[in-house]
Amino acid sequence: MAIPSDVQLDSLVEFEDPPAVATVPDPTRWRALGVIAIAQLMVVLDASIVNLALPSAKASLGISDANQQWVITAYTLSFGGLLLLGGRIADYVGRKRAFIIGLIGFAAASAVGGLAPTQGFLFAARGLQGVFAALLAPAALSLLTVTFHDPKERAKAFGVYGGISGGGAAIGLLLGGVLTEYLSWRWCLLVNTPIAIAAVFMAIRWVHESKADGDTRYDVAGAFTATLGLVTLVYGFTKAAPKGLKDSAHWTDPATMVWFAAAAILLTAFFLIEKRVSNPLLPMRVLLDRNRGASYLVSLITGIGLFAMFLFLGLYLQVILHYSPVKAGFAFLPFSIGIMLGAGAAAQLLPRVGPKPLIVPGLIAGSVGLLMLTRLTPDSAYATHVLLPMLIISVGMAFVFIPVSSTALHAIGHHDAGVASAMINTSQQVGGALGTALLNTVAVTASAAYLTAHDAMGRAGVPAALTEGYTRAFAVGAGFLFAAALVALFMLKVGKEAVLEDDAPVPLG
Predict the structure, then answer these.
(1) d(Cα 250, Cα 239) in Å, to the nearest integer?
(2) Tens of pLDDT, residues 340-386
């Protein structure tokens, strides 16, 4: 794999790929892409599929309002916290092996969750889903990286992957609404089991093994501090979020501050460890490369800003416009269509223009779409005030997800492909967790202020107050997307000449 011009000469050995043995492309690479796409879709949509099923699950298992968050955060906490370790495991034990283990575990955890007799079983199953997703997701992306070597084919493969990553959440909302209304909330989890099992058999036949060469010892201290530090950070932001419309934020509560302090100590210790050990979990060469660092930062900030669209637009449709779960799910379908159309265009343009000319306009388009949603009122119509902004955001995000995935893995070398892949998902998950706490705080604060200023309206003012909170969150989300555009504009240096570089195929396992 060629090295971009801004990589220092003393890093050449670290990034150089092993000599190629095979001389022809993998003949099953497109079938392998199909299996990887199935796995990625399960991981992405599982973060949102239970959202529209939550009211039914609460009634079925007696889950309180205080505990309902754990149906979502049990998955996010374990997924985001274990991704780095999962990426390193995939590098060392073999990406195909980790991929298959992740699929089997995800299938089993989904079955346990779908059959859960109590809320405790459901929370535990969601946590286990996150554990196996943390092994599955980086293995899937690193397999994609080492399977496709021709630049045009790789761009198409990343187009498929980026489209799924961007549209999976919307598909999850649609599927969750349909399954909940016509079958049961339990099928939002059970549906994963047969799909994952089928993917296992396809992976055994069509996916080839690859693993890291050289030093493959585990960095136990780094794994412990990184995993616990990320879990602690995400949990701290969860604790800081308001518990309801009449509640206030808990940023300065002693319990919240303890979690943030613990996260700061653990993550600081992690980076100190990574600088000193010979076999780091996250080699600084992965993180400190300018283009990769910019890609991870863009993913993090985008996750924060984009969360506003999914969370608060979903609430607006159901709470303000009184959409049923199915109708709300179908209302997000144009987002998925826009992602797919945009992904196809981005895959064609990426080798021609490079990543930055796609990422920056895409983020600006997403910011504009969120600003358009700030015009919503309790009387707004979907066709006139929601549909167009949603399409603008979706196409814009398709122009972000695909090139960011490409630049984050450019010139990484096969030894670190798994951990670099994990960093993309980690940044997105942490960004989503930050968005949950921060934007919910913004929305609830704005709604409470509106109710105080319009006290004479009483209960009649609640829809307007809620809408005020949602639109304020959209505005803040737009600011984050614009900030991500600035990061991409000034930090990304890789051009189309790097995207067009051809990789030598690795040995087929």
Answers:
(1) 7
(2) 788 888 888 888 888 888 999 999 999 999 999 999 999 999 999 99
Q: Which residues contact 281 (CB under 8 A, 6 or more apart)?
A: 84, 85, 88, 218, 219, 222, 223, 226, 274, 419
Q: For residues 42 and 53, what is the distance between their CA atoms, to the nearest angstrom?
A: 16
> Is 328:177 a contact under the CB 8 Å cutoff?
yes
In this prediction, residues 220-244 reach a mean pLDDT of 75
**Helix (H, G, I), strand (E, B), or coil: what is residue 27?**
coil
User: Using one digit for the tens of pLDDT, what is the confidence trace for 387-417?
Assistant: 999 999 999 988 988 788 778 776 666 666 6
In 3D space, the residue among 30, 302, 49 whose CA is nearest the CA of residue 159 turns out to be 30
CA distance 149 to 158: 12
Half-sphere exposure for 13 (CA within 13 Å, toward CB): 2
Rg, the chain, Cα only: 22
Structure tokens at 22: 């095979």
- Chain position carrying tokens 């980790």: 98
Give which of 261, 220, 214, 225 is closest to 240, Cα–Cα. Answer: 261
Instruction: Return the C-alpha torsion angle 89, 107, 77, 224, nearest 10.
Output: -30
Question: How does the average pLDDT of the chain come out, rounded?
Answer: 79
Classify residue 336 by burial, with Cβ atoms within 10 Å: 0-12, 13-18, 19+: buried
CB 32 within 8 A of CB 206: yes
Reading the block at residue 214, the tokens are 């050289």
* pLDDT the model gives residue 417: 65
Torsion of CA 432, 45, 314, 114, to 10 degrees: -110
Q: Under DSSP, is residue 25 helix (H, G, I), strand (E, B) or coil?
A: coil
Six token digits for residue 431: 């960004």
- Are 60 and 185 within 8 A, CB to CB? yes
Q: How confident is the model at residue 245, as a pLDDT?
A: 55
Q: In whole angstroms, what separates CA 40 from the centre of its chain?
A: 10
Spatial distance between the Cα atoms of 31 and 205, rounded to a whole number of angstroms:
9
Q: How does DSSP assign 411-441, residue by residue?
A: T--GGGHHHHHHHHHHHHHHHHHHHHHHHHH
Give CA–CA dist 398/401, Å, rounded.
5
CA distance 152 to 171: 27
Model pLDDT for residues 189-210, shown as the tens digit of each residue:
998 899 899 999 988 888 878 7
Q: Could you give the C-alpha distances from 101 to 22, 275, 352, 505, in angstroms and in order?
A: 27, 31, 38, 25
Query: What domains appear along the chain, each with residue ranges and CATH number?
Result: 22-209+216-499 (1.20.1250.20)
Angle at 39 between CA 83 and CA 140, to 5 degrees: 50
